[in-house]
Write a structure and sequence with these properties.
The structure holds 2 protein chains of 2 kinds. The longest helix of chain A has 18 residues. Chain A contains 19 helices and 20 strands. In chain A, 50% of the residues are buried. By secondary structure, chain A is of the alpha+beta class. In chain A, α6 packs antiparallel against α14. Chain B is α/β, with parallel strands linked by helices. Chain B contains 23 helices and 21 strands. The chains are: A alpha+beta, B alpha/beta. At the A-B interface, α5 of A face α18, α19 and β19 of B.
């Protein structure tokens, strides 16, 4: 292949490279593993290939020890992540997802930080049924995980006129173009005939090749002034440029990414850098060429350093731009002017493009019924009468979009009946909160996240009340491990799990998602978290300038230093 | 012993020769000689009696001991091995008293030899609804058929084993007893019917038989010898009547959260036990009644829990509370209990009821002593009177789930916790719930070893083994595979297991996984009945794999079935017959004969309950 890959052959390739290469384009022995009735798991190598199919093998970590003593294997189940480019689904699709949640999963739906659906707790014997039902809803999970381009994010705010609709079609196009071409998914899950593939690598996977990318690859499209998709956290970000009300093209941001490894300062979160502008019709081509640069130059010997951001930082932004221009055969324009205001969501009813849109606050993206809050049932009822669509937001919230004036009243009645909320009564902190799944299902979690953040916010709210800043919009994010699914490195207040009940606390991220935060306290528990935040929030309440965000304030007040590049994150 | 003309049937010259040679014989030679002479008994005795020499005739006249020349035949019908072990005990006692004895299972005895039998002892359990045990069925049928011979020369006695809580208590023993009488046999001594606590009555029956067939003592004869192991000596030999207190090492619920079931894995220490066991054997456990039931019972009678009551005919006593906890059964009713209760309760309603046809059997189903006292309150009932109508708390016997070879100082049990509601009260299995709720590691329980000669496994590498054990029926197969693993045996083994749910009820899942990985278990097929719309059970799996299953049988596989009898074992039997019909081209009769032949060859063994 390329010069770089040939060089890497002399070093020891990561084990995952061998597994991908031998998987016969993502087949592995998954089919055999599914039919092994003695275990609820599949083989370890297959679990790695399964990710490319949008599914993780997990187990209930709460029960691991107990079951070991009971001579039972771990309570294995599978997570399926359903790709939703731009987060837009029809009411029928919503109902199909709701059905799968009840029939095969744990009765809940998770809206992810990348605008996808996640099912948890699917048993091996139901995995295929679930995949087929997803397919029947004209959706799929292929490449929702794995070393490929993931769900393409896109600003979902339908009220921002027809530009948003147009941008969403670009998200769909990029997503389609970068979806693996292997027949494995259809053979394994949809019982399509196995074809003995004798074509060569370039024909089977023209973009990826047989070992796919060195690591996951994330693309998102922002529509200013909203940076809800956290464009600087993406491996490849596109920023829509609107001139005279028309979408003309995109600024291109490269090399952002959240993940790092505790104790390894060679790893760090990074913000993307804008390298230029391309006309809108070349966006697919640009995406493909950047992906191939990462394919050819990404690190395949150390997965901890394999994300595109490290390639960008190692080669330099200028080198990447030159390589891109050369692969394109034409040159990028200079970046154009744009302005971001925020990276959160705007709740409640809004009007745009002649339709109504209701943004619903969903705590940590979890759609479920509890005794007091029948959110899942309410949404299912709304899906039953809704004629527009649903939008999954990058902040794990939900927009009931494109509601006609006539349906608005009916939908409002359901909203009232079930008391589902736009978060209006919540603090600005809670409305801007985000947590990943973590325990009990996520195999990577070191500490609680989704199950813990709401109660921590309760306690911080007492401080907010005392400081008189309850209404202040402050982003707070928690991740159970440093992989950073909730994009914690960009939050004004962030927690990254270290051990059960212990977190690193970070302060000073940019409200617009444009600046990394800084480690403030290491490995602390709840008491110390509250004790540390207390004086800072009180000070903020007293000393903040008009319109000054918390993340900016802690830097002005000298509480933490500003971090403008990940390479200085650990300094 | 020095033989003389007066203490033996020999003449001077004979005694001299015998006395010369006897001291020179090694013990082995003596045993050989006695066996040689015994084997020729028939011809010897015939010639003796046809033309007795004067010396022999004189001796016989002096001793009047013709019985010792008759042969005793002991036949047993054993379901769980009790009848067989009693038969062995009886055989030993007869031999100690110099009788010639033949012993076998009822079905291993050739019907045509029945006419030749002289003294016949039948020891038989009763099975299910009054049916004969598996290894007695064909003899039972023969005896009750027109082909049964007249048995005018036969002397016999029957020891019947049973459980009073069943309607057809000791029925098989009763049937044998009546039938032998009908055919002209003479009773040596009356039949004894034993409840679960059979040791004492069985002992009495044995003494009765021995006394009746031995000559009453005179100057030459000897009294019947006491059994070798009497109550007094040998306390270190643990047995049913002298149980070992085993310490609990582990007590684990094998079912994951959300299960409808609670199956306990119990590990007991056998450190000082001193006996070995084999896969297939059982462990008896003496349980205690739940203290809340005991308190409730004593409370409703308004008695003093500390008052002393006699618990047996020997006059041993315990406090009322202790007696009802550890000595007497209070969770089951039996027909004799109700009959006697009607006499001592002073309750007219009960008196009337017991005379109603079938009322008792219907009433005792699912009820206990507390129900009886609630429904028919007793007046002026004294503790002594009540405990006299109670039977002894029986031991529970469980298939051992571990291998002696692998864990010689431990024994493992797999116990399903029994809880149910009947007649508007929640009820608990005495032993299983004691383990589930009251016993912890460090506590001890009285146990004894119970061999199961009808469930024996091959320990070679050439015999393929098929094991069908859903639920707790899998216990003996864990023992067997653990033993094969320990002995490093290779070979073909195939296990069928079933339960309700894969996630929560896959008993010993991780152990099977590693046995599969190591090749100790060649194949494992699973039926989880409640994981799919259509209920799948182990017999469905056999059907689905009929080709392989038949191939295994053809290759000489030995087949084991353990677990629920009424449905599982029956369904499995039928489906195997179907496999033989489908894959082996047999008709129904041929298939059934094939299975019967397998049973005879011990290639089809069952431990079902």
């Amino acid at each position: 292949m390329t010069e770089n890959n040939n060089k890497q052959l002399s070093e020891k390739l990561d084990e995952m490279e061998r597994i991908k290469g031998e998987s016969n384009y993502l087949r592995g022995t998954i089919t055999e593993g599914l039919s092994d009735a003695v275990t609820g798991a599949i083989s370890e190598e297959d679990t790695k290939i399964l990710k490319f199919h949008g599914s993780y093998q997990q187990d209930d970590r709460d029960l691991r020890d107990e079951r070991r003593r009971q001579k039972l294997e771990p309570a294995y189940s599978f997570m399926i992540r359903v790709k939703v480019p731009g987060g837009t689904v029809t009411p029928d699709q919503w109902q199909a997802m709701d059905d799968i949640a009840d029939e095969y999963a744990n009765g809940t739906l998770k809206l992810t930080t990348r605008q996808a659906f996640q099912f948890h707790g699917i048993l091996k014997r139901n995995l295929k049924h679930s995949m087929q039902n997803i397919n029947n809803a004209v959706m799929d999970s292929l490449a929702a995980c794995g070393d490929v381009n993931r769900n393409v994010m896109c600003n979902p705010n339908a009220y921002q006129s027809k530009v948003q609709q147009e941008v969403n079609t670009f998200a769909d196009e990029i997503s389609d173009h970068l979806t693996p071409r292997t027949g494995a998914y259809h053979e394994i899950w949809l019982d399509e005939e196995k074809i003995h593939d004798t074509r060569d690598e370039e024909e089977v996977e023209p973009v990826y090749g047989k070992t796919y990318l060195p690591r996951k690859f994330k693309i998102g499209i922002a529509v200013p002034p909203s940076n809800d998709i956290d464009v600087y956290s993406q491996d490849l970000g596109f920023i829509a440029i609107i001139e005279a009300g028309q979408l003309t093209g995109f600024n291109i941001s490269i090399g952002g990414g959240m993940g790092m490894t505790h104790g390894n300062t060679d790893t760090y979160p990074q913000v993307g850098r804008v390298i230029g502008y391309c006309p809108k019709n070349s966006v697919k081509e640009v995406a493909e060429k950047i992906v191939t640069i990462q394919r050819d130059y990404g690190n395949r010997t150390d997965r901890k350093k394999a994300r595109f951001k490290y390639t960008v930082d190692a080669k330099g932004v200028d080198w990447i731009r030159a390589e891109l221009n050369s692969r394109l055969g034409w040159e990028l324009n200079d970046a154009k002017e744009f302005q971001f205001d925020h990276n959160g969501d705007r709740y409640g009813w809004t009007k745009g493009s002649g339709r109504w849109h209701f943004t619903l606050f969903i705590q940590n993206g979890r759609i479920k019924n509890t005794a007091n809050y029948q959110l899942k049932t309410a949404l299912r009822e709304i899906a039953g009468i809704h004629t527009g669509d649903f939008r999954l937001t990058p902040n794990q919230n939900l927009i009931i979009a494109n509601v006609t004036a006539q349906k608005k009243k009916q939908i409002q009645e359901i909203i009232d009946e079930y008391g589902i909320t736009d978060g209006e009564n919540y603090s600005g902190l809670r409305r801007n909160s985000m947590a990943c799944v973590a325990f009990p299902t996520c195999g990577l979690a070191m500490a609680e996240s989704e199950r813990y953040l709401p109660s921590l916010i309760n306690k911080i709210e007492e401080i907010l009340d005392e400081a008189g800043i309850n209404e202040e919009e402050i982003t707070i994010r928690m991740s159970g491990c440093p992989n950073g699914c909730s994009r914690p490195a960009l939050a004004e207040i962030a927690f990254i799990g270290k051990a059960p009940g212990k977190y690193n606390m970070y302060l000073g991220g940019g409200f617009k998602g444009d600046r990394l935060n800084k480690l403030y306290k290491e490995n602390i528990g709840e008491a110390e978290i509250l004790e540390s935040l207390h004086p800072i929030l009180l000070q903020y309440g007293k000393e903040k300038f008009e319109g000054e965000h918390f993340g900016d304030f802690v830097i002005r007040a000298g509480i933490v230093e500003a971090v403008h590049s990940g390479q200085y994150f650990h300094n | 012993m020095q033989l003389t003309v007066t203490n033996s049937p020999f003449n001077e010259a004979q005694t001299e020769k015998i006395n010369q040679i006897l001291p020179t014989l090694t013990p082995e030679q003596k045993i050989w000689l006695s066996g040689y002479l015994a084997a020729n008994q028939q011809s010897v005795s015939e010639s003796v009696f046809d033309t007795p020499s004067p010396e022999v005739a004189e001796y016989l006249m002096n001793t009047e001991n013709p019985s010792k020349t008759r042969e005793v035949t002991i036949l047993f019908g054993s379901e769980t091995g009790n009848a067989q072990s009693l038969a062995e005990l009886m055989e030993g006692r007869l031999k100690e008293n110099d009788f010639t004895v033949k012993s076998s299972a009822l079905d291993d005895f050739k019907p045509k030899d029945l006419k030749k039998a002289e003294d016949l002892l039948i020891i038989s359990a009763t099975h299910g609804e009054g049916e004969p045990p598996e290894n007695a069925v064909s003899f039972y049928e023969f005896l009750h058929s027109r082909k049964a011979p007249k048995l005018d020369d036969l002397r016999f006695s029957v020891l019947a084993l049973g459980d009073q809580s069943y309607e057809h208590f000791c029925q098989t023993g009763k049937d044998f007893d009546n039938r032998l009488d009908e055919l002209g046999g003479q009773r040596i001594s009356p039949r004894a019917d034993c409840d679960l606590d059979f040791d004492e009555p069985a002992d009495e029956w044995m003494n009765g038989v021995l006394n009746a067939i031995s000559t009453p003592s005179d100057e030459h004869g000897t009294a019947v010898k006491e059994p070798e192991h009497s109550h007094a000596d040998n306390q270190s030999v643990y047995s049913r009547t002298n149980p070992y207190r085993a310490e609990i090492l582990e007590n684990i619920n094998l079912n994951g959260r959300g299960s409808n079931k609670e199956v306990r894995h119990i590990e007991l220490s056998l450190e000082e036990f001193g006996q070995t066991f084999e896969p297939g054997d059982c462990l008896g456990v003496y349980p205690e009644n739940n203290s809340s039931l005991v308190n409730q019972l004593i409370g409703m009678l308004n008695w003093n829990p500390e008052s002393k009551v006699k618990i047996n005919s020997r006059g041993d006593s315990l406090t009322l509370s202790e007696a009802l906890t550890s000595h007497f059964e209070i969770t089951k009713l039996t027909k004799p209990l109700i009959t006697k209760a009607a006499e001592i309760f002073g309750n007219n309603a009960l008196k009337e009821k017991v005379d109603e046809e079938g009322w008792i059997q219907n009433y005792i189903e699912g009820r206990d002593l507390i129900d009886l006292l609630n429904d028919f309150p007793a007046s002026d009932l004294q503790p002594e009177a009540l405990v006299q109508i109670l039977r002894k708390l029986p031991a529970r016997e469980y298939s051992i789930a571990s291998s002696y070879e692998a864990n010689p100082e431990e024994v493992h049990l797999t116990i399903s916790t029994v809880r149910y509601n009947a007649h508007n009260r929640d009820r608990s299995g005495v032993c299983s719930v004691q383990f589930a709720e009251h016993l912890e590691p460090g506590d001890t329980v009285p146990v004894y070893l119970k061999r199961n000669p009808n469930f024996k496994f091959p320990l070679d590498e050439d015999t393929p083994v098929i094991m069908i054990g859903p639920g707790t029926g899998v216990a003996p197969f864990r023992s067997y595979l653990e033993e094969r693993d320990e002995l490093g045996l290779e070979g073909q083994t195939w296990l069928f297991f079933g339960e309700q749910h894969f996630t929560t009820d896959f008993l010993y899942q991780t152990e099977w996984q590693s046995l599969l990985k190591d090749g100790v278990l060649s194949r494992l097929d699973l039926a989880f009945s409640r994981d799919s719309d259509e209920k799948i059970y182990v017999h469905h799996l056999i059907e689905q794999n009929s080709k392989d299953f038949y191939q295994w049988l053809n290759d000489g596989a030995v087949l084991y079935v353990c677990g629920d009898e009424k449905r599982m074992a029956k369904d499995v039997h039928q489906v195997i017959r179907k496999v033989l019909e489908k894959e082996g081209g047999m008709d129904e009769n041929a298939a059934e004969n094939y299975l019967t032949q397998m049973k005879k060859e011990k290639r089809y063994q069952r431990d079902v309950y």
